[in-house]
Amino acid sequence: MEGSSLYAEHLKEQQRRADRALELGGYDSLLIASGSLRYHFLDDNPFAFKPSPLFRSWLPQVTSSDCWIAYRPGQAPTLIYHQPADYWHQTPQDPQGEWTDHFQVVVSRRREDAAKLLSDNLGRCAILGPEIAAVEGLHPDNPEAVLSVLHYHRAKKTGFELEQMRGANRLAARAHRAAEAAFRAGESEWGIHLRYMAAAGQGETELPYGNIIALNEHAAVLHYQVQDRAVPPAHRSFLIDAGADQLGYAADITRSYASEDGPYAELISAVEEVELALVAMATADQDYAQIHLAAHQLLAEKLRELEIIQIDAEEAVASGVSRTFFPHGVGHLIGLQVHDVGGFQGDESGKQPIAKPDGHPYLRLTRRLQPDYVVTIEPGVYFIPMLLDELRAGPHAGAVNWERVESLLPYGGVRIEDDVRVTDAAPENLSRNAFAEVV
Ligand SMILES: [Mn+2]
After folding, report:
1. pLDDT category of residue 121 using cuts at 50, 70 and 90
2. Distance, CA 247 to ligand 1 centroid (Å)?
3. How many angstroms is it from 19 CA to the middle of ligand 1?
4. What is the Å distance from ligand 1's center to 241 Cα?
C-alpha cells in the first residue's frame, strides 16, 4: 500500500532528524508531549486542543492530549497513549491504524502516570513540549540545541507530508469555489464563511487559521478577523484568505474577486501576473528574501502602469513608497504550522540566523530554498487608510495619484496566494493544481 510506505518513510526521517538533534545536543533520548488542555479563566471550558507540532511530526494520526512519544536512537519509539476513564467526554478510540505497527503503545488512564509508564531507561533525556504538559517526573525543558535541528529540517517535506498538503489544498480549493459562488450570490461575510466551512467539511477549530472573509473596504485589513452578519449595500470586491487541514498539515490560499470590470479587476489581473512570476522564482538555491524584493519591484511597476503612483518603480521601492501598498512579507514556510518554524535559520545549529533585508520587518523567511521546501507566495496591493495618511503627510506625497487611490479605497485591496513546493526544476503549485482538479 503506497500510503503505508509513505508514512513509514516519513517516520524514519523523523528518527534520523532526532538522532542528529540528540547527537548535537548531547542527549541520549527524546520525549515529546502532545500537550494538555488549557482552560478559560475561572471556567471549566477548555480552549480547542491542538497537539504540539513536534508531536504531530511523528504521529499526525493521534490528536489527543497528554500523550508522550519516547524515543531512544536504535530502538522503536514508545507511545504513552492517554485514554482516560471518563464518561463526560468522548474518549480517544483504541489505538488502530498503520502507525501502531511502528510504536510500542502503552495506554495511560491518568495523565499523572506518564512517567511511571516509561519503563525504559532513557538516560539523559531532552523533553519537548509546552509547560502545561508537565507531570511529576516529566518537565519539558525544550533544549534549544535540539529544537534548532528539528526546526531547521522541518522546512523539507517528506513524501507523506507532501501528500497531506496536496490534500489540504484540494479541500481548500473546493471551499474557495463555494465561497466565490456565495460572494457572487450576494451573501454576507458570515454567510460566505458558513458556505466555506460546509464545503471544506471543517469547523472553526479544525481550520488551520481563522478565515479572512473580507468584502469591500474590509479587504484592506490584512488579518481581518470579523465576519460581518449584515449583507453590505454593494458587493464590489471580495478577498478570501482561507485554508484547510489534512492530518495537521495546512493549506493557506488567498484569492481576490471583482464583481465587475474596471480598475479593481485590472488590479487583480496585475497582482496575479506578479504572483505567477514570483512563483516561478521559487526554485532550488533561490534566496527567498530576493523573491520578496522582486515582489516590491514588480508590484511597483504595476502601480505605475495602473497610474496609482506617478514615479518610477525603482524610485517607489527605494523611497519606501511601495511598502505603503504592500506592507507585509511575500510569504513563509508552511507545513504543520501555517507559518512554519525555522524561517530565519542559516543552518541546523540555530546559531546563524539570516537577517531580514533592512526596512522589511514583516518578512518571515530569509533562507535559501531547497527541493521539497513548501512556501507560500502571496503578493498584494492594498489601500490602507492609516498607511496612506502617513504617506500623504510625508515627503513622498507627490509620488501618488491620490484621485486614483481615492477611487480604489472602497475595494480595500488584492492579495493572491498559492502554496508552492520547490523542486530541482519548475515549482509544483499545490494550490493551482488543486483548483484545476476541483473544477
Ligand atoms: Mn500565508
Report:
1. confident
2. 19
3. 31
4. 8
Intervals of CATH 3.40.350.10 along the chain: 2-153
Q: How far is the CA of 301 from the centre of ligand 1 (A)?
A: 23
Helix (H) or strand (E) run with residue 132 in it: none
* Whole-structure pTM value: 0.97
Residue 1's pLDDT is: 46
Centre of ligand 1 from the C-alpha of residue 376, in Å:
6
What gap in Å lies between CA 340 and CA 351, rounded to an integer?
Answer: 18
Q: How far is the CA of 417 from the centre of ligand 1 (A)?
A: 7
pLDDT, one tens digit per residue, over 279-320 is 999 999 999 999 999 999 999 999 999 999 999 999 999 999
* Ligand 1 mean position, distance from CA 56 (Å): 21
What cell was used for 241? 484568505
Q: Tens digits of per-residue pLDDT, 196-215? A: 999 999 999 999 999 999 99
Domain 159-437 falls in which CATH fold? Creatine Amidinohydrolase (3.90.230)
In one letter, which amino acid is 400?
V
Q: 421 by DSSP, 3-state: which?
A: strand
- How remote is the CA of residue 89 from the centroid of ligand 1, in Å? 34
Distance CA 363, CA 377 (A): 12
Superfamily of domain 2-153: Creatinase/prolidase N-terminal domain (3.40.350.10)
